[in-house]
Design a protein that fits this description.
Layout lengths: L1 E6 L10 E6 L2 E7 L1 H4 L12 H8 L9 E5 L6 H13 L4 E5 L1 H10 L6 E11 L2 E9 L2 E8 L5 H11 L8 H7 L13 E4 L2 E4 L20 H7 L11 H29 L3 E5 L6 H10 L5 E4 L8 H14 L16 H11 L4 E2 L2 H13 L4 E4 L13 E5 L6 H10 L8 E5 L3 H4 L12 E3 L2 H4 L11 E3 L1 E3 L5 H14 L3 E6 L11 H10 L4 E4 L2 E4 L3
Parallel strand pairs: 1-4, 4-5, 6-11, 11-12, 14-21, 16-19
Antiparallel strand pairs: 1-2, 2-3, 6-7, 7-8, 9-10, 13-22, 14-15, 15-20, 16-20, 17-18, 21-22
Helix pairs in contact: 4-10, 5-8, 8-9, 12-16
Length: 539
């Protein structure tokens, strides 16, 4: 069966539109709308650009599709609206199946995991009126055991505090997580969120209005919260120690609630394998806390696109699993379009830039040497990734040994806050030498401790609390990125590169060669690598 998963177009509040194709149980393509519109989060419309891109990447046309699966069970007219959209834009609408928002999250995690049984948790702000699903995954099925509404929403709690700290909701949560290690958890937030004898409780009386009609640009708190915590930080105001401490208190509280939910869920399922999805699952510090605090968790899989970016894939997998089973365990998120040498050459000629073409071995040697000498490189390879992390397909890379590199990239290239950390990409076979971890972690979903003797060696990717959001790089799943890091290791003795997404603040990750070229010349990058084409700025 050929399934097209779709997310977007239900309401103006719906964000992170995208499309995914699953063929006979296997993932064929996943595309995010923002990569093509160049507008972050792609709110309020059907993914009219990513649907044809996903079909093209899968080698299909709309008439080849058997079922369209869409997340959004609480919208009564969704089938009719979706049918009109599909017929208007593509001249055809296959059978439509509607999947619950949280079930799509669960499916995106469990069916992509390597586990045959697992405790499965989806937790986020709210979706289809629900903020939490707990399920037992077995084989090709998911049995939902428990659900919770907005009154238990960990996402709502974190959104309120993100807004109070002056950051944009749905985008600024990463900033709160990154800010937390700079402070101490001096504020008791039990009044806002706590564990009771009935479970988690989030006090919505501190929230400003109906979450269903909320804009991420509005304040999410009211005067009652100001009376408890003092004046909120204005978005343009400088950060003070009390903001660091409040971020630390927020993160501590989240970790407390998350570990409680995981422990209680495992009691229900008796499975020591854990699968996570939903926006809260993107908190990689909380994921580390789970591994350190919940001894019953033996194995963890976090869906790389745990936020609503993963709903199109989850909806498609939920339908496909019923008849075709589940896909192979996820080893890569590079399921977007690929751009030929001809397309890249065309973009280069149109831009009027000078370039050279290098074979792989020469490319790795040349770029690794440039990196070791301080160059900051835009790295564009193969099919684009889905999800919020760049994992070697659309990355900015640099030398992690330079203690000033984080500040250079934040100020010259990303144009973002100086406290925000960057991730280490490490050769998979060397990961346990550098980090306190076992096994692979290819998707940057857990912040692992950097071993003491390595912290001074890779200061640019060691956060202030001694952790790094690790990406392990496998020769099998990402041979070119692995080859580059290997060459860098030969030169420096360090099997790690700094890796961050190829974009500047406020923009989506680059998708096409033309996007990469535009971004390259709009910021302080030194070198751009498009497949085997190398462009250097004239000095």
């Amino acid at each position: 069966m050929k399934v097209l998963g779709v997310h977007g177009g239900v309401s103006l509040n719906q964000h992170d539109a995208g499309a995914a194709v699953v063929i006979d149980g296997q993932i064929a393509s996943v595309c995010e709308e923002e990569r093509f519109t160049r507008v972050k989060m792609s709110r309020g419309h059907l993914p009219i650009r990513s649907i044809p891109k996903a079909l093209e990447a899968a080698g299909l046309k709309i008439n080849d599709i058997d079922v369209v699966a869409h997340a959004g069970a609480s919208y009564p007219d969704l089938k009719d609206r979706l049918s009109r959209w599909m017929n208007y834009y593509y001249g055809h609408c296959p059978e439509i199946k509607i999947i619950h928002h949280q079930y799509a999250h669960l499916a995106s995690a469990f069916f992509c995991s390597p586990f045959q049984d697992a405790t499965c948790i989806s937790y986020d702000y709210v979706g289809d009126q629900i903020s939490l699903y707990v399920a037992l995954g077995k084989g090709n099925s998911l049995k939902v055991l428990r659900e919770a509404g907005i009154e238990e929403s960990l996402g709502l709690f974190y959104c309120i505090m993100t807004s109070f700290l002056g950051f944009e909701v749905l985008e600024g949560e990463y900033k709160v997580m990154g800010l937390a290690p700079y402070g101490k958890p001096t504020s008791n937030l039990d009044f806002l969120a706590r564990v009771t004898d009935k479970g988690v409780f989030v006090d919505r009386s501190y929230f400003d209005s109906d979450p269903a009609i909320r804009s991420p640009f509005e304040p999410y708190f009211n005067k009652k919260l100001i009376e408890r915590l003092g004046e909120p930080r204005m978005p343009s105001a400088p950060l003070e120690q009390r903001h660091f401490d409040l971020a630390a208190s927020t993160q501590k509280k989240l970790e407390e609630l998350v570990t409680y939910i995981v422990k209680e869920s495992i009691k229900e399922t008796s499975s020591e394998n854990l699968c996570l999805a939903g926006g809260v699952a993107l908190n990689c510090s909380a994921n580390l806390s789970i591994l350190q605090s919940v001894l019953d968790v033996k194995n963890l899989f976090v869906q790389p696109a745990s936020s609503d970016r993963g709903l199109a894939l989850g909806a498609a997998l939920a339908v496909s699993a019923e008849s075709d089973g589940r896909p192979d365990p996820l080893s890569t998120v590079a399921y977007g379009p690929v751009y030929s040498e001809g397309t890249i050459k065309e973009a280069l000629l149109l831009s009027g830039v000078s370039y050279v073409h290098l074979e792989d071995s020469e490319l790795f040697e040349s770029i690794a040497k440039e990196l070791s000498n301080g160059a900051i490189v835009g790295w564009f390879q193969g099919r684009s990734e889905f999800g919020p992390r760049a994992l070697g397909q659309r990355s900015i890379i640099a030398d992690p040994r330079d203690k000033m590199m984080k500040d250079k990239i934040n100020s010259r290239i990303k144009f973002r806050e100086e406290f925000r950390p960057f991730a280490p990409a490490v050769l998979e076979e060397r990961a346990s030498d550098v980090f306190e971890m076992k096994g692979a972690s290819p998707f940057m979903t857990v912040a692992y401790p950097v071993r003491q003797d390595w912290q001074k060696k890779i200061p640019a990717v060691t956060h202030i609390n001694g952790t790094g959001r690790v990406q392990t790089v496998s020769k099998l799943s990402n041979s070119k990125f692995w080859g580059l890091i290997s060459e860098f290791n030969k030169i420096t003795g360090v099997p790690v590169l700094l890796n961050t997404s190829f974009n500047v603040k406020g923009e989506p990750i680059v998708e096409r060669p033309s996007d990469a070229i535009s971004t390259f010349f709009a910021c302080g990058l030194d070198i751009l690598v498009l497949e085997n084409f190398v462009i250097r700025k004239k000095k």
